[in-house]
Amino acid sequence: MHFSSLKLSSAVTALLDEQGFKVPTPIQQKLIPVLLRGENVVASAQTGSGKTLAYLLPILEKIVPAEPLAHHYPKAFILSPTKELAQQIYGVTKSFAPALGLRSVLIQGGGKRGEERSKLERGVDIIVATPQRALEYMEAKNIDIKGIRHLVIDEADMMFDMGFVGYVEKVFTAMTPKSQKVIVSATITPRVVKLAKAYVKPLHRIELDPPGKIADTITQMLYPVLKSKKDTLLAWLISSNHLERVLVFVRKKELADGVAQSLKEWGYKVGILHGERSHQERKRSLHAFREGRYQILVATDIAARGLDISDLDVVINYDIPHVKHDFIHRVGRIGRAGREGVAMTLVSPDEIEQLHDLQKVLGGKIKEVILPEYAPKEVKARGYLLHPPQRKRQKSSVKRSATVPGAKQGKKRKTTKRDGWKTFDSSNAKKKGKGTENKRGRKRK
Q1: Staple partner for 126: which of 46, 50, 104, 114, CB 3.0–4.6 Å?
Q2: What whole-number distance in Å separates Cα of residue 195 and Cα of residue 189?
């Protein structure tokens, strides 16, 4: 199938050909026709499957002017939870919009407000924004939300995790009922579907892959390791495999700084990316990593979505993320557009329960690689992390009388001196085998 068969205009298909896009991906084949019909959609597909173009192309098709515009006003509004993802979406938008006579603007936390306001005042057709900054401009009347014809919520499940659901609800409330609404993510959770049904009617659902599906082109490996040896194993994996460009994910920003410092001591050139670093610092680290000036980029899960780095083939998970679906997005930084990739995950004994929860999400077990010099003692003989030994029940020294299963146990009666006499007398009676007993249980002569 070629893009021209999706009923896109010759101007749009010509731009696709110029940029090397020939065959639409499965999500593009499914989503583009539905959006061209003007339907509201909730769509999920694997990371790296081409979701950005899948919703952007039909929007461009619908808002492209028949002749040069005298005045530009916002017609499409795309919301993203992180700056990195917003920048990537804006980059794709800039590669198409100017050639079609359209203007776009990027609005994000840490951006230059003067430049953003200036572009909005001059007039734009497409706004790509992070939620908090977008709401500020809406409340200041810099954006006429009523004129928006197309709203896109990208990585909607992350909006919940980052606490942006209130912002999203305000944007939905401000939109006109006739505007087209699109919600996309690699993992559509029940909470996202609930929000969509509350604000988007009627609703078309597209789900190409199961929630825990990872691309078949990605090879996954699990390394059991003592927590104290994680830094050493990380450095060894990079050096022994001669890895030239590696993205390392960690759970916390404090840990990111520590891991980066450890790698620097081993002689590696390392960049850092997490929420506590300034916008310019994050931008410089990412730019240097893209250009190859940094061999390693250590990042928290804010980079798990939105990073599309060419020639990136290896991701190393220093630990398992708090949100299990973030693991799918971490690994999704590789294997994009059918490329092959390798994902290595380091797991210490204190992460066993998290590993089991993760494998339930993934629907299967990750191949375990045991390195005796790094693995805990209990792992060397068997896959302890995958198959933890059952705790042995201690045998009680007190013998218990057999009971009928399910029978109701009554309260045990307190023994008395009379019980002792009865036991004594009955045993004597059995021995003699004759005579009768009086009321006290004693044998009569």
Answers
A1: 104
A2: 10
Measured CA distances, 276 to 24, 129, 144, 175, 281 (Å): 38, 20, 32, 33, 10
Burial 164-181 (b: 16+ CB within 10 A, else e): bbebbebbbebbeeebbb
Domain coordinates of the chain in residue numbers?
Answer: 3-207, 218-380
pLDDT digits (tens, 9 = 90+) for 366-402: 889 999 899 888 775 555 444 443 444 444 444 444 4
Residue 429: left (phi > 0), alpha (psi -120 to 50), or beta? alpha
Tens digits of per-residue pLDDT, 206-241? 887 666 678 788 999 999 999 999 999 999 999 999
The encoded tokens of residue 145 equal 């939300």
Q: Write down the residue that tokens 């070629």 correspond to.
A: 2
Q: Is the pLDDT of residue 29 over 90?
A: yes
The answer to whether 380 and 231 have CB atoms below 8 angstroms apart is no
**Amino acid sitting at position 344:** M
The pLDDT, as a whole number, for residue 404 is 42
* CA-wise closest residue to 312 among 328, 284, 285, 331: 331
pLDDT on residue 174: 87
Q: Do domains 3-207 and 218-380 have the same CATH topology?
A: yes
In 3D, which of 303, 304, 356 has the Cα closest to residue 186? Answer: 304
Q: Whole-angstrom Cα distance, residue 55 to residue 51?
A: 7
Residue count of the chain, please give it. Answer: 445
Predicted TM-score (pTM) above 0.85:
no
Residue 232: its H or E element: helix 230-240
Sheet holding 150-154, edge to edge: 104-107, 126-129, 76-79, 150-154, 180-185, 41-44, 204-207
Between strands 246-249 and 204-207, the pairing is: unpaired
pLDDT exceeds 60 at position 421: no
Token pair 């049904």 in the structure block, residue: 197
What is the DSSP pairing of strand 150-154 with strand 76-79? parallel
Task: Write down the pLDDT at residue 400.
Answer: 43
> Which residues, including other chains, have CB under 8 Å from residue 141's CB and lie 6 or more apart?
none
Degrees to nearest 5, angle at CA 175 with 84 and 35 = 70
What is the Cα gyration radius of the chain? 32
- Alpha carbon distance 343, 30 (integer Å): 29
CATH of domain 218-380: 3.40.50.300
pLDDT at 420 over 70: no
Q: Which of 18, 174, 157, 143 is nearest to 73 (CA)?
A: 143
Separation CA 92–CA 166 (nearest Å): 27
